[in-house]
Specification:
single chain; 339 residues; alpha/beta; elongated
C-alpha cells in the first residue's frame, strides 16, 4: 500500500492536505515505483492544466514503459485547469500516471471532482485539536511510543507546523532508542518556539486570573524568538486593541445590544463577540477606562519613562489591569483587591 494507494496504479492521483509530511511520503512512494528518468516534475505556478495534459500525452508517445507526471501546487489551479484534466481522464495516455499534489484543498474543489471520476483522491488534513494524536502516530512510524502528556507538550512547545513536529519526533525517537518518550524527555530536549496564542492571555485577563495572566505573558515572551525589546511593545499593542474592543462591547451591552447584534459594529464574528461580552461582564466601565489609562502609562514607561526593566513594568501593569477592585472605605473610590 502507498499510504492509501492500491497496488494497481490509477491514471491519476490527487494527493493533498495540510498533513504535508504524509503527502510527501505518499508522493515519494509513488515516485519510487517509476524509473528516475521516467518521472517529470512540474510546478502548477508555471504549468496550466493543458500543459500537464500535453506532458502526459507527449510522454505516452515514447512507447514502452510506465511514466509519471507530477504537478505540485495545484491548489492554485482554476476551473479551466480542472476542466482540461477531466477531459484528459476520459481517455488517459496508456502507461502514464498523473500525480497532482496540493496543500489545503476541499473535497468539493474543481480539481478534486475532475480526478475523482477516473482516478483517486487522497486528502489528509490535521486539525489543531488532533495534533497530539498525529504526533503519537508519527512516533509509531519510528517504532517508538510516547505518553499522551509528552505529545501534548511537544505540540505546545513547537506549535502546529507539521514539518517541524515531524523533525522533533524523529529526533526524540532516535534519542529514545525504542524506549517510551516521556513528558520529561520532551521538556529536556525540545526548545520552546511556538508563540502562545494571544487569546490565552486575553482569556486569562477576562477571567481576572492574575497568575494565569502572568504565566501567559511570560510564555509569549519566551516563545516568539524575538528580542524582548520588540516583543513586549507588540504584546502591549495587542492587549490595548483587545481592551479598546472590550470598552466598546461594554457600552454596546449597556445600550441593550446582544453579542450577535454588536458583532458587526465590533468588527468581529458572533462567537468571539459573545466571548468578549462574557469577559467584560467581569469589569465595570470605570475599571475598563482605568485599564486603558494604565496601558497608556505602560507605553510611556517602555519608551524611556521608567528606570525599571520593561519586564517588571509589564508585570506590574498586568496585575493592575487584572486585579479585582474593592471600594476604598476612606474615600469610596476603588482600590486593587487581592484576586
Amino acid at each position: 500500500m502507498l499510504d492509501g494507494m492500491a497496488d494497481e496504479l490509477h491514471p491519476a492521483y490527487l494527493i493533498a492536505g495540510g498533513d504535508r509530511p504524509k503527502v510527501d511520503r505518499a508522493v515519494a512512494r509513488l515516485r519510487a515505483r517509476f524509473d528516475a528518468d521516467a518521472v517529470e516534475l512540474l510546478e502548477a505556478a508555471e504549468t496550466t492544466g493543458d500543459d500537464a495534459v500535453a506532458s502526459c500525452n507527449a510522454m505516452g508517445l515514447f512507447g514502452a514503459g510506465t511514466r509519471l507526471v507530477v504537478v505540485d501546487g495545484v491548489e492554485s489551479w482554476k476551473a479551466g485547469d480542472a476542466k482540461a484534466v477531466a477531459a484528459y481522464l476520459k481517455a488517459p495516455a496508456p502507461g502514464t500516471t498523473l500525480a497532482l499534489v496540493a496543500g489545503d484543498l476541499k473535497k468539493e474543489a474543481p480539481i478534486a471532482k475532475a480526478v475523482a471520476g477516473a482516478g483517486e483522491v487522497l486528502l489528509w488534513d490535521v486539525t489543531s485539536r488532533a495534533i497530539p494524536r498525529w504526533i503519537a502516530d508519527q512516533f509509531k512510524l519510528h517504532k517508538t511510543s510516547a505518553d499522551p502528556e509528552a505529545c501534548r507538550l511537544l505540540a505546545e512547545l513547537v506549535g502546529d507546523d507539521l514539518y517541524e513536529l515531524a523533525g522533533e519526533v524523529e529526533k526524540l525517537a532516535t534519542w529514545a532508542g525504542g524506549a517510551e518518550v516521556t513528558e520529561a524527555d520532551v521538556e529536556a530536549l525540545v526548545a520552546p518556539r511556538a508563540e502562545s496564542p494571544p487569546w490565552n492571555l486575553t482569556d486569562a485577563w477576562g477571567a481576572r486570573d492574575i497568575g494565569a495572566v502572568l504565566r501567559e505573558a511570560e510564555r509569549m515572551l519566551d516563545r516568539t524568538g524575538d528580542p524582548v525589546s520588540r516583543t513586549i511593545p507588540r504584546l502591549v499593542g495587542s492587549l490595548t486593541r483587545h481592551l479598546q474592543r472590550a470598552r466598546a462591547a461594554h457600552r454596546l451591552e449597556e445600550q441593550g445590544l446582544s453579542p450577535q447584534e454588536a458583532a458587526a459594529q465590533l468588527g468581529m464574528k458572533p462567537f468571539p463577540a459573545q466571548k468578549l461580552f462574557s469577559q467584560v461582564r467581569n469589569f465595570s466601565g470605570a475599571e475598563l477606562d482605568d485599564a486603558m489609562i494604565r496601558l497608556a502609562a505602560l507605553d510611556h514607561a517602555l519608551k524611556g519613562g521608567s528606570r525599571l526593566s520593561n519586564e517588571l513594568e509589564l508585570e506590574r501593569a498586568l496585575v493592575d489591569i487584572t486585579a479585582r477592585r474593592a471600594p476604598d472605605p476612606r474615600s469610596g473610590s476603588a482600590v486593587a483587591a487581592p484576586a
